[in-house]
Design goal:
- It is built from 2 helices and 10 strands; from the N terminus they run E-E-E-H-E-E-E-E-E-E-E-H.
- It has helices at about 45-55, 135-140, and strands at about 10-15, 25, 35-40, 60-70, 70-75, 85-90, 95-100, 105-110, 115-120, 130.
- The radius of gyration is 15 Å and the shape is globular.
- It has one domain (about 10-140).
């Protein structure tokens, strides 16, 4: 089944863009499609915002669970967001490819100029993350995800 490319994609970040374009960077993930040198984006605003929250200053180890097509929940294993705002970048989809196919993740190997940037109050979206339970922390340590 071929997924229709959305008109717009979203990139969440705890940082305000310096310059006019998002530049491909080496990502830090566990799966091979999560360690590409690329600009990462998604077709889900909620997923992008949750991603910005788990990358905030003050957050140590974290992960993101996709609950359904447009629902995501960030799990924070250590620390907690210390910022007041995060940023949502709306991107044109032309340069993006769906990797892995069928997922909500899209990547561009070229720099991307946002269509617009929205500054969001962290307090309005904090419900998209939660602290990990002791059981989840133990499991993550056993698997080597966190120290």
């Amino acid at each position: 089944m071929k997924i229709k490319k959305p008109e717009y994609l979203y990139h969440g970040s705890p940082y305000k863009l310096k310059g006019k374009r998002l530049i491909p960077k080496k990502a830090k993930g566990a799966a091979k499609h999560d360690i590409l040198k690329a600009v990462y984006a998604t077709d889900s605003k909620q997923y992008a915002i949750a991603m910005s929250l788990i990358a905030c200053k003050g957050v140590g180890n974290s992960s993101l669970s996709v609950i359904s097509k447009n629902k995501a929940k960030g799990i924070i294993y250590s620390g907690w967001p210390e910022q007041k705002e995060v940023y949502l970048y709306v991107l044109p989809s032309e340069e993006f490819v769906n990797i892995p196919k069928g997922s909500c993740q899209w990547v561009s190997f070229k720099s991307v100029k946002p269509i617009c940037v929205k500054k969001l109050k962290l307090s309005d979206y904090i419900h998209l993350v939660r602290k990990a339970s002791k059981k989840e922390i133990k499991k993550a340590k056993r698997r080597g995800w966190i120290k």
